[in-house]
Amino acid sequence: MRLVTKIAATASMLVVGAGLGAASGSAQAAAREAHVYATVGFDKIKPELVLDTLEGTVTGTYTATQSEEELDAIYRTGTYGITSGTLEGEFSGNTLTGYWYETAYNAGLQVYCDTERNGTRVYGRFVLTFSADRKSFTGLRTGCEIVPDAYEHSYDTWTGTFLRRQAIAAAPNAASAQAKADAARPGSPAKPGANPVGRIIDGAARAAEDEADAKAKEAARKAARGILDRLF
After folding, report:
1. How far apart are the C-alpha atoms of 65 and 225, rounded to whole Å?
2. pTM value?
3. Is the distance from CB of 138 to CB of 103 less than 8 angstroms?
């Protein structure tokens, strides 16, 4: 009788332990879900905003949902805005404050800041105030180091509505990252089928394109300055 009791107790503990393990796994899975918002800025560009968490330190990405044709039409009105990039911030209560960093540089119309931050000179600040249930937010977005002010920047709006939750892609493990780093080092053995000459040619072509683009932009700036000098 005692043996039967012990077996029953052990089985019960195993079931409870399995339940706790499943609950822990579910909690970890939930913690790895991002929060996705449909947003619109004062510039009428509508980025989809993905935040990794809604408390503490936050990182995220934003991507414009409009087509290139729609974005071009917006740019032709003389406005500009964020279209693709990352952000980082901190929650305090229901308010998220931080920086956005543009990576698309669409049409070259974004304002370039005097100083670089996080590897780019196209960035700015934001302040977003979320509803208590985190289903929506209203806020402001400015360029460079300008601190958003409700009075001075009331037109620089950025609002959003919750869309869904989605899984966050797992980060590559250390071994995988190290293998990629080793493969990228000069002198590392080439992979089967790799073409080092082709890579060199491609790199040279990209460098030439970048140089030509930089020269064209500088020529355009000089022409614009000449026109302004004649007008004023």
Report:
1. 35
2. 0.59
3. no
Taking CB atoms within 8 Å and a gap of at least 24, the contacts of 106-111 are: 106/71, 106/75, 107/71, 107/72, 107/75, 107/80, 108/217, 109/75, 109/80, 110/80, 110/82, 111/80, 111/143, 111/144
Closest CA to 125 of 152, 155, 156, 103: 156
Q: Which two three-digit tokens encode residue 221?
A: 């700036």
Reported as type and span, the H/E element at residue 151 is none
Q: What is the pLDDT of residues 141-175, one digit of tens each?
A: 988 999 988 788 888 899 999 999 998 865 444 44
Q: Give me 216's structure tokens.
A: 């064209």
Residue 187: Cβ within 10 Å count: 4
Residues with Cβ within 8 Å of 150's Cβ and at least 6 positions away in sequence, in order, are: 140
